[in-house]
């Protein structure tokens, strides 16, 4: 009987340990900034494209012209085909650059060593070719497992997801529908994911509406991800 109780207790302890491990792993995955911060992060993924040019120039021109802070997550394969565009984004002082994997792989389908190689590809390229460090990582498709979280932590990167998925690559969604979707979910500290590789059919329109109308109406300001994570109500400064 005592032996049975021992194994029941051991099983319970193991279950608690696994649950705690899962909680700690999730805690390392950042989906939003502090709720006390009257700001949001506008983020744009630059995934590889096969046929199109792969760069939403109108969107970028709008952000630059109106000095809207934004964070871009670049894949290595995208960077390899868009050298001039990488330099353009790196030159904007209110833009922040993160990475998005080498070939946009489904990370949970790979062993941890392969995941590390996928993650480090664009990080190395930014450092060796452009002389810029990268500290933010976003997994392709938003997919990850415990090994992904461990790999990102071991590589000294911050694991950035989002809490608002705009749905901008969906060709069935009109700009008004995307705006309504974002508006319904938006709150202080939100991280919004969109695309700057041309797959977002209405991304510029949505961004313009957010920056010019929705954010000011809610008393929110756009920030880079890093500024948002450092932010609280007493330290917020207006967008330039």
Estimated structural class: alpha/beta
CATH class of the largest domain equals Alpha Beta
CATH topology of the largest domain: TIM Barrel
* Rounded Rg: 20 Å
Strand content: 5-15%
Query: Which segments are poorly predicted (pLDDT under 50) over 5 or more consecutive residues?
Result: 10-26, 233-240
Q: Specify the number of helices.
A: 9
What would you give as the CATH superfamily of the largest domain?
Answer: Glycoside hydrolase/deacetylase
Helical content class: 40-55%
Overall strand count:
9
Explained architecture:
- The protein has 240 residues and is an alpha/beta fold.
- The protein has 2 domains: 1-29; 31-230, TIM Barrel (Alpha-Beta Barrel), CATH 3.20.20.
- The chain has 9 helices and 9 strands.
- It has helices at residues 2-27, 57-65, 76-81, 83-90, 112-130, 146-154, 175-185, 203-217, 225-230; strands at residues 29-30, 39-46, 70-74, 95-99, 136-137, 158-160, 164-165, 191-195, 221-223.
- Strand 7, helix 7 and strand 8 (191-195) form a beta-alpha-beta unit.
- The longest helix has 26 residues, at 2-27.
- Mean pLDDT is 88; it is low at 10-26 and 233-240.
């Amino acid at each position: 009987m005592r032996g049975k109780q021992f194994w029941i207790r051991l099983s319970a302890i193991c279950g608690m340990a696994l649950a705690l491990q899962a909680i700690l792993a999730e805690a390392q995955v950042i989906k939003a900034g502090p709720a006390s911060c009257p700001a949001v992060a506008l983020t744009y993924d630059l995934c590889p494209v096969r046929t199109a040019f792969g760069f939403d120039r109108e969107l970028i021109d709008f952000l630059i012209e109106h000095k809207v802070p934004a964070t871009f997550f670049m894949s290595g394969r995208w960077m390899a085909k868009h050298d001039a565009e990488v330099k353009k984004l790196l030159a904007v002082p209110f833009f922040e650059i993160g990475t998005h994997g080498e070939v946009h792989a489904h990370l949970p389908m790979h062993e941890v060593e392969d995941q590390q190689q996928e993650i480090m590809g664009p990080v190395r390229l930014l450092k060796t070719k452009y002389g810029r460090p990268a500290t933010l990582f976003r997994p392709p498709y938003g997919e990850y497992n415990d090994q992904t979280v461990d790999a990102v932590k071991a590589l000294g990167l911050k694991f950035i997801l989002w809490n608002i998925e705009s749905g901008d690559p969906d060709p069935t969604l009109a700009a008004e529908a995307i705006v309504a979707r974002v508006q319904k979910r938006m709150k202080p500290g939100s991280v919004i994911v969109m695309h700057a590789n041309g797959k977002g059919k209405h991304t510029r329109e949505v961004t313009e509406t957010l920056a010019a109308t929705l954010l000011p109406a809610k008393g929110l300001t756009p920030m880079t991800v890093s500024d948002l994570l450092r932010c609280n109500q007493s330290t917020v400064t207006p967008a330039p």
